[in-house]
Amino acid sequence: MKKQKLTLKAQEISKHYGSAAVLSDVTIDLPAGEWLGILGESGSGKSTLLRILGRFLDADAGSVYFKEELLRPVSGELIPGHEQIKLIHQEFELFPNQTVEENIAYSLRFYDPEYKKERVAELLQITGLEPIRNQKAKLLSGGEKQRTAIAKSLAEQPDVLLLDEPFAHLDNHNRRVLADAIENLRQEQKMSCIFVTHEASDALAWSDRIAVLRDGKIIQTGSPQEVYNQPVDSYVAELTGDINWLADSTADKKRFIRPEKIKRTKNPEKSKWTGSVDAIRFHGNHWEIRCVNKQGSLAFYRNRKDLEVGEQVFLTYSERDVMKIQ
Ligand SMILES: Nc1ncnc2c1ncn2[C@@H]1O[C@H](COP(=O)(O)OP(=O)(O)OP(=O)(O)O)[C@@H](O)[C@H]1O
């Protein structure tokens, strides 16, 4: 195992709002350079956790360390936050009447003008904002605001970036552009990042490691592949993708399989599941075929539409791909 120092460490963080527990004993390790995705449903406590990590909110119990330094409580301080940990809120906090370039340059107002100019140009390029550098912030789309806020927060090269739902409310085009900007950041800026999301596909695509947050508790941490292929329970299995419960599941041993692991066979002797097509749905890059028999239903994917509703199908899968949860 690689010996690596942590940039950020949160230890046994708990937080209540009134009598409601929002976070319970949350422990998070962020090694230098890692992108950690926190995946959880709406209301699971993601934003609260980010605000505690960014020093905008105090936990009721637990500690946050930045490179071995225990962070002081934030309440009572005039300016919350931390110089090396930048939190980008969902509201972005840009100056509406200033241009993209002016918003970014503001973060560097105490720097040498020559350096400021170079750094702003670099940030505009990394985040793909160069073509709209002179656009006023109030006229930007959601995705452009998001990228400007990221560029502004990166200006002083913080060690840790905290992103609250970076892809929320973006159309496909803006998601693509932001994704390219993030890829550039990962490669060129070498910073650590914690981002929270309720979209499994974003967490799976962008994280080195994922922590699944459910009702304020971390219930699984692992690589995207581990969380997807070896979920600790049916909640994580269903949160991270489509699943088919197999009819031989029992109360104390549930068995399920992802639709992409199921194959069609023309040979009835090789079939593990026989039924008829009940519905066909087009998803752009694949077709979802939903089949039924007396025991239940099963969905699988095809990359072309070679079946009709009502048609009989023989399906097979490898026992290796069946996931089992006690
Ligand atoms: N200032 C507050 N006072 C009281 N309750 C709050 C406060 N802030 C958040 N909550 C509650 O705490 C819970 C967790 O909120 P939080 O915003 O951290 O969740 P989230 O996972 O980020 O949700 P979303 O994905 O919808 O933004 C929610 O039930 C929310 O209503």
TrEMBL record:
GO cellular component term of the entry, any: ATP-binding cassette (ABC) transporter complex
The keyword Transport belongs to this UniProt entry's keyword annotation: yes
Protein name in UniProt: ABC transporter ATP-binding protein
One Gene Ontology term of the molecular function aspect: ATP binding
Pfam families registered for this protein in UniProt: ABC_tran (PF00005), TOBE_2 (PF08402)
Keyword Nucleotide-binding among UniProt keywords: yes
Assigned keywords, A-Z: ATP-binding, Nucleotide-binding, Transport
UniProt-listed PANTHER family: SPERMIDINE/PUTRESCINE IMPORT ATP-BINDING PROTEIN POTA, SPERMIDINE_PUTRESCINE IMPORT ATP-BINDING PROTEIN POTA
PROSITE patterns: ABC_TRANSPORTER_2
Domain ABC transporter positions: 8-240
